[in-house]
């Protein structure tokens, strides 16, 4: 229903950091929860992090908690994923998504709009 554009991916060494950005093409951005998912070749798409519309609530996968931080700036119409202490197993295409349905933030079926993804590659 809405176009999402991710940016900020790249190639980094293990232990390094990246900050991903997502810019949705809608004026109702502030009314939706948003999430980040990732998918490696041959793997299912998996939940990484999510944030409520106001930014007051956050959700993290166990693999992300303590290393990644999701945030949003509704005035700038942007959601971010700060990734620190990156590991080779974090290598994947990262997708921004808009939560539309009322189910679990961890389920990709609850999101109705997806970006094209940005590649994150972490070298050993």
Short description:
This protein has 124 residues and is an all-beta fold. The chain has strands spanning 4-7, 10-13, 18-24, 34-39, 46-51, 58-60, 68-73, 78-83, 92-99, 111-114, 118-123. Strand 7 (68-73) and strand 8 (78-83) form a beta hairpin.
Number of helices: 0
Number of DSSP E strands:
11
Mean pLDDT: 95
Q: In percent, how helical is the residue content?
A: under 10%
- Main beta sheet, described? 7 strands, mixed
User: Radius of gyration, Cα only, in angstroms?
Assistant: 13 Å
From the N-terminal CA to the C-terminal CA, the straight-line distance is 38 Å
What is the H/E order? EEEEEEEEEEE
Briefly note the structural class of the backbone. Answer: mainly beta
Shape: globular
Task: State the oligomer.
Answer: single chain
Name the beta content range: over 45%
Poorly predicted residue ranges: none
Please outline the helices and strands:
Blueprint (H helix, E strand, L loop, with lengths): L3 E4 L2 E4 L4 E7 L9 E6 L6 E6 L6 E3 L7 E6 L4 E6 L8 E8 L11 E4 L3 E6 L1
Parallel strand pairs: 2-11
Antiparallel strand pairs: 1-3, 3-8, 4-5, 4-9, 5-6, 7-8, 9-10, 9-11
